[in-house]
Amino acid sequence: MKTINLKSNLYLVIFLSFLSSCTDVIDVDVPDAGPRLIVQASIDWEKGTPGNNQTIYLKTSKPYFDSSPSPVVTGASVTITKDNDGTVFEFTDQNDGSYTTSNFIPEIGTSYTLNIVSNGESYEAKETLIGFTEITKVSQEDGFTEDEYRVRVSFNDPEEEENYYLGEFIQENVALPSLRAVRDEFVNGNEAFILHFNENNTVGTSVDIRVFGISKQYYFYIEELISQAGAGGGPFQAPPAQLKGNCINIANPEEEVLGYFRLSQLERTSYTIVE
């Protein structure tokens, strides 16, 4: 819960009044290097399902101050190859920026290669499908205020392995999912957990929970993404840096390709906060 400081607000009013009296217009020059390919390729295999149905989304970036939706990419060729046996899964263009398949075969610990051909350019990314154990318990704890609660999701961490996890929390009273990334640096072989805390975690709130096994590379990528998203900022803060993912232009590796190719096993559950 935020506290309002009347003295600070008075300074703010004076500052805004000063700004309103200025007649000079400041033009902010934001560099625009042109559109970049955005690859949203999260191959998620939920436990208890075959994992055959998968979707990849392709878009292009837009200028920073452009509020219109990102342009979608159609007409591309999208495939994923299972590296251990050469099986190729073709994704069908749905003409809305999405590409789908219904015959994907997930295999934990196996490397896969994503190939995209769009506008005469070929792109590639490699990743390994990371497994997840199982959620053992979901509980709640007191939050920072008397009417706020934290949700704790517990699971067993495999011994003698370096593991990384992503928690995704979706609830009706929050516009966007909350993400938390953790690693087993201090809990290897023991019970691990992810904490979800939000000022909207009040009694009666239902939370949809998904926990993914993720790679080390993706862990550091998503950590930076979460950090940028939570940085807040004011009118004079520089725009967040665009994160380069693991997709590369084969002919021009220096091209900045946004987004990430990830393969994860996950478990899903839900929890409703009580008094």
In the predicted model, the low-confidence regions spanning at least 5 consecutive residues are 1-31, 231-240
Helix-strand sequence: HEEEEEEEEEEEEEHEE
Radius of gyration: 22 Å
Taken as a percent bin, the fraction of beta residues is 35-45%
Counting H and I runs of at least 4 residues, what is the number of helices? 2
The geometry reads as: globular
Structural class: mainly beta
State the end-to-end CA separation: 19 Å
Write up what this structure looks like:
This protein is 11% helix and 41% strand. It has 275 residues and is mainly beta. The protein folds into two domains: 133 residues, Sandwich (Immunoglobulin-like); 103 residues, Immunoglobulin-like (Sandwich). The strands form two sheets. The protein has a twelve-stranded mixed β-sheet, covered by helices on one side. Strands 8-9-12 form a three-stranded antiparallel β-sheet, with no helix packed on it. The N terminus is likely disordered.
List keywords for this structure.
twelve-stranded mixed β-sheet; single chain; 275 residues; Immunoglobulin-like; globular; disordered N terminus; 2 domains; mainly beta
Topology of this structure?
Elements: H1 6-20, E1 37-46, E2 54-60, E3 77-82, E4 87-93, E5 98-101, E6 111-118, E7 121-128, E8 135-142, E9 149-156, E10 164-170, E11 178-183, E12 191-197, E13 206-214, H2 216-229, E14 248-249, E15 258-272
Parallel strand pairs: 1-15
Antiparallel strand pairs: 1-2, 2-5, 3-4, 3-6, 4-5, 6-7, 7-14, 8-9, 9-12, 10-11, 10-13, 13-15
